[in-house]
Amino acid sequence: MILCLLIAIPAAAYYSYKTTLDSLNVEFKDEGLEAEIGDEYEAMGRVSDSVGDISSDAEYLDTETAGEKEIVFTASQAMFGGLLNPTKTFTYQYKVYDKTPPVMLWSGDGVVVEKGSEFDIKSVVGYGDNADPKPEIKYDGKVDMDTVGSYPLHITVTDASGNSIDWDMTVNVAESIPVS
C-alpha cells in the first residue's frame, strides 16, 4: 500500500503540474504592432487575455531605436503552496519605425564664405533628426570657391530610415567675410 502511495502521489503531482503548465497562456491584443520611435507603450497593455500570473521582462516596449523588437512575457501559477511553480514564456514581436523626417534648424540661405577657402555644407546649415544622430546631407549645385558670386544649391538631408527634407539656398562667395 505504501509503495502504491509513493508512486501515486508523484504521478498525481506530475499530472497536476503538467495540466497547469498546459493551461498557462498569454494572448496579445495587437500582434505586429508598428510603433513610432519614442512613442510609449506599457508592456502589459499589449496583453488582451491570460491564464496565470503574468509578468514581462520590461515595463515598457523599447522604442528608442528602429527595428524589429521583442519582449518576453512569463505566465506562472504557484501550486501546492508554492512548492511547484509551472512557468511558460511567450514572446511579443513588434516593429519600431522612424517616420519623422529630419528638421532644418538653419537654412544657411544667404551665407557668405570667403573666396579661396574650402566649402563645407555642414558648416553653413543646421539640421537634426529625432532618431539618427548623423543624417546624410547632400546638395545639388556647385560653389566655385575661387570666383566671387552667388551660387544656388538644393539641399537634401536624409536619415537612416529614408525620411528626408529638402530646401533651396544661395551661397555667396566674397573677397572677404564682412565684419559685423
Walk me through what this model shows.
- The chain is 12% helix and 41% strand.
- With 180 residues, it is mostly beta strands.
- It is rod-shaped.
Mean pLDDT: 90
Which structural class best describes the helix and strand composition? mainly beta
Report the principal-axis shape: rod-shaped
Radius of gyration: 31 Å
Strand order of the largest sheet: 2-6-5-4
Report the strand count.
12
Q: Strand count, sense and closure of the main sheet? A: 4 strands, mixed
Q: How far apart, in Å, are the first and last alpha carbons?
A: 105 Å
Helix content: 10-25%
- Give me the strand/helix succession: HEEEEEEEEEEEE
Question: Would you identify the regions where 5 or more consecutive residues have pLDDT less than 50?
Answer: none
Number of helices: 1
Oligomer: single chain
Proportion of strand residues: 35-45%
